[in-house]
Amino acid sequence: MMYRLNRMMVPLLAVGTFAVAILNTTLLKAQIANPFGNPLIPDMVADASIQVVDNTFYCYATTDGYDNGLNTSGPPVLWKSKDFVHWSFSGYYFPSAVGQKYWAPSKVIAANGKYYIYPTINGFMYAAVASSPDGPFQLAIKPDSLYKPFTPSTLLKSPDSKPPYGIDAEVFIDDDKQAYLFWQKRKAARLHNDMVTVDTNIVTIPTPRTGYSEGPIFFKRKGIYYYLYTLGGGEKYQYAYITSKKSPLGPYDFPTTNDIITTTDRDRGIYGPGHGSVFNLPGTDDYYFVYLEFGRGSTNRQTYVNKLLFDRDGNIKPVILNKEGVGPLLKDKVAIPKKISKATASSIRADLKVKPEGDSSLHRTESFSPFFALDGSNGSRWMAETDDTDCWLLADLGRPQRITRSEIYFVRPTAGHAYELEYSLDAVRWLPVGGHGDVQIRSPHNDKLNLKARYLRVKLIKGIPGVWEWKIY
Start and end of every F5/8 type C domain (predicted)? Predict the structure, then answer.
């Protein structure tokens, strides 16, 4: 069932006499649930590499949610946060890769007075370089031009006409400054000092569990090297690990128990915790595990983070998975958004039932109530009907209040949005107060305000008609 309001109905909403509008707001709040919890980023991102650079969290990831499975992806954008709760991006960090199939970028690696990153583009690994971790990055092996299926600038080289197969690069620099490259199917090799030449002595890391593996994670803690590798995919995604006290290339020791540290937890409603990263909070022994979750099926995934714990011998404990996250990790002064009394919209998209790929116990339905755009959770969103040509979302603060700022996190922000922002005291007379008519690729979209109003209304001009979160201050 789809509910649609028009502008003539909004004054009726203000006095509480329009039943459908009330159903859209107050009743839906009690009737529907958000099965996705509170993921880290207010967008669909997967394969996330997270690190701390100069007291700022950097998240390089695959942009999901472009509705074409593995045949496409979103563009390369860099999400940043000062506290690990409030995230933002603006524009692209790798211009020549825009429009390509851009997957699984590594963390940035500082070397040779520069920063290197290793994404998979169109199914092949490349190295890119910049003078800042913010970019703009260019291919490290020139020219800075990409085309399908692959170019001579690939990180791996093939001795014959066969493609240089390999995806999901992970790069680690040891204490002696030697760099190592890890990638799909348990492959590993040294990287030369130029950070783009892969040693020809490629090894396959032995693991007690066999089968296809991707998304390797590698780090060192208290003299122990940790190699994490995935198993399966979809709802069957898992992570297992092995360790070495000798070298990143082994020999390796196999845990005798609990070598699988993440797997589907049906009781908590977490399916397929897979391809991600591990990062450490500088100056502490606090480690965090980053992973994608099966989410809405196919390449419609989001990223979650939980604490990574070790026993006294350095063994990794199975990760206690939850979808609520770890909260702020660095202190940063942030304002508290206002509470919203009601939310209404021009239309509401019909419920979406997630289709399992291989686990029939997955029963998950996404609803798109306007309330979800104002509930403080990155896992829920309001979406309008696709044929809604007069698309708007209205926030009712309950009474006239002083408003200083609006932050809107649109759905699929990497494709850009244009919008108008209006305010009103009575939901009858509306005045323009913000927005922009040109399509801008960023999130959130910020409007500085200085007004008194009870209602704010955002009208979408261009872009996907939906909002992950709307914060009003």
Answer: 335-473
The predicted model gives 321-340 an average pLDDT of 93
Q: Which residues make beta-bridge pairs with 50?
A: 59
30, 375 in Cβ contact below 8 A?
no
What number is the average pLDDT over the span 219-227?
Answer: 98
Cα Rg, the chain, nearest whole Å: 23
Q: What contacts 167, CB < 8 A, 6 or more positions away?
A: 103, 104, 120, 123, 124, 125, 183, 184, 214
Contact call for residues 453 and 397 (beta carbons, < 8 A): yes
Contacts (Cβ under 8 Å, ≥6 apart) of 117? 60, 94, 105, 106, 107, 108, 109, 127, 128, 129, 130, 137
CB 275 within 8 A of CB 214: yes
pLDDT (0 to 100) of residue 150: 96
The chain-wide mean pLDDT, for the chain, equals 93
Q: Work out the average pLDDT over 328-337.
A: 90
pTM: 0.93
Query: 160-188: string of b/e by CB count within 10 Å (b at 16+)?
Result: eeeeebbbbbbbbbeeeeebbbbbbebbb
Q: CB of 186 within 8 A of CB of 213?
A: yes
Task: For residue 267, name the pLDDT band (cuts at 50, 70, 90).
Answer: very high
In the chain, the domains with their CATH numbers are 7-31+335-472 (2.60.120.260), 45-308 (2.115.10.20)
- pLDDT band, very low/low/confident/very high, at 161 (cuts 50, 70, 90): confident
Three-state SS across 387-412?
CCCCCEEEEEEEEEEEEEEEEEEECC
What DSSP string describes 323-369? SS----SS----PPPPPPSEEEESB-PPPEEPPPSS-TT---EE---
Judged by DSSP in three states, 306 sits in strand
In sequence order, what DSSP letters do the residues of 110-176 get, joined into one string? Answer: EETTEEEE--EETTEEB-EEESSTT---EESSSS----SS--TTBSS--SSSS-------EEEE-TT
pLDDT of residue 32: 76
Give the max Cα distance, the chain. Answer: 74
For residue range 72-120, what is the model confidence (pLDDT) as tens digits?
999 999 999 999 999 999 999 999 999 999 999 999 999 999 999 999 9
253 φ/ψ sector (left φ>0, alpha ψ -120 to 50, else beta): beta
**DSSP H/E element including 447:** strand 445-462
Of 259, 304, 221, nearest to 45 by C-alpha is 304
